[in-house]
Write a structure and sequence with these properties.
The protein is built from 9 helices and 13 strands. It is α+β, with helices and mostly antiparallel strands. The chain has 3 domains: 2-86, Rossmann fold, CATH 3.40.50; 113-184, 2-Layer Sandwich (Dna Ligase, domain 1); 187-272, D-amino Acid Aminotransferase, Chain A, domain 1, CATH 3.30.470. The strands form 3 sheets. A 5-stranded antiparallel β-sheet has the order 11-10-9-12-13. A 4-stranded parallel β-sheet has the order 2-1-3-4. A 4-stranded antiparallel β-sheet has the order 5-8-6-7, with helices on both faces.
């Protein structure tokens, strides 16, 4: 049986274990963060005895998605010595929201109007950047996930207030990404996460807030912020857009976030570490194709 290493033990790990095992893929967890990891030295104590963490990295054939923390990921990658379904390059590419949108725009795919601001800049640069937009606008860190740090600004003063807080973070010298996005706000847009597996659409969910959340003024549809993901059957245009986005980025296994209004359909973000939802929300052959991608990745080492 093929052995697949996963560096997450959250929802996706529990959901995929059984279906992949039924298809000849044994899924195991390799812990990549919040621990110590041996970097060098062939033994634990310098006395020739086996290293304490040696066995946990042995016997895997392939990995599913490079670890989210790239520093730890480099060590885990070396210790495992396996090919990845979505390696480091795929994760880095997808994490860069501005880079993704620039790539998609360059090949003619629809995206929200977006401007990248690279700190530090004078306030006048922000004022000039937002002059092309109508309020409200969305402000988001360029490389955060799960909706962290995303805010809506209704006027220039509120925008500059959000930027002030970002400046406090970016002023810290160890902060690697000192950029943020100003993006057009699409009111009443429907929010979808489409899954693409090995280049082909494999199902989708619509992420929705309940009536109470909407009444309270909530607008972000991230599941980790309380939205509900409901399986939907996307129309051919949306399916094709998700597939074309994955092809443009060159990523085999990708979550593509789509926003749809009455007259527009755009790619908002992508995620090369997508959460796998319940199988009932995807195409019937989802796991067959997923297992085939894992197997092909292992065989093409």
């Amino acid at each position: 049986m093929l052995r697949l290493a996963m560096t997450t033990d959250a929802e996706t790990f529990e959901r995929v274990r059984g279906p992949l095992a039924d298809r000849g893929v044994d899924v195991g967890h390799v812990r990549a963060k919040e621990r110590s990891l041996r970097v060098s030295g062939g033994d634990a104590e310098g006395d020739g005895s086996p290293a304490a963490d040696a066995d946990e990295f042995d016997g895997f054939d392939v990995g599913l998605v490079y670890p989210t923390r790239l520093m730890e990921g480099a060590v885990v990658d070396e210790r495992l010595g396996v090919p990845w379904v979505n390696g480091r390059d795929a994760v880095v590419t997808s994490r860069n929201k501005a880079g993704v949108l620039a790539t998609l725009d360059a090949v003619g795919l629809p995206t929200p109007r977006t401007t990248l601001v690279s700190n530090p800049v004078d306030e006048s640069v922000v004022v000039d950047a937002v002059s092309e937009f109508s309020y409200p606008v969305v402000v988001k860190p360029n490389s955060a996930t799960r909706g962290v740090g995303v805010a809506a600004a209704t006027d220039l003063d509120s925008l500059l207030g959000v930027v002030d807080y970002l400046n406090l973070i970016h002023d810290y010298r160890a902060t690697g990404d000192k950029s943020f996005l100003i993006q057009e706000y699409l009111p009443d847009a429907r929010d979808y996460r489409a899954m693409v597996v090995d280049g082909a659409y494999a199902g989708a969910v619509r992420r929705e807030l309940d009536a109470d959340a909407l009444a309270a003024g909530r607008w972000k549809h991230n599941v980790h912020r309380g939205a509900t993901a409901r399986g939907v059957d996307l129309d051919p245009e949306a399916r094709e857009l998700a597939e074309r986005a994955a092809a443009a980025l060159g990523i085999d296994y990708l979550g593509v976030d789509l926003l749809a209004t009455d007259d527009r359909l755009v790619v908002n973000e992508t995620n090369a570490r997508p959460t796998v939802d319940a199988a009932t929300k995807y195409e019937e052959d989802f796991y067959d194709r997923f297992a085939a991608l894992v197997r092909r990745t292992a065989e093409n080492e």
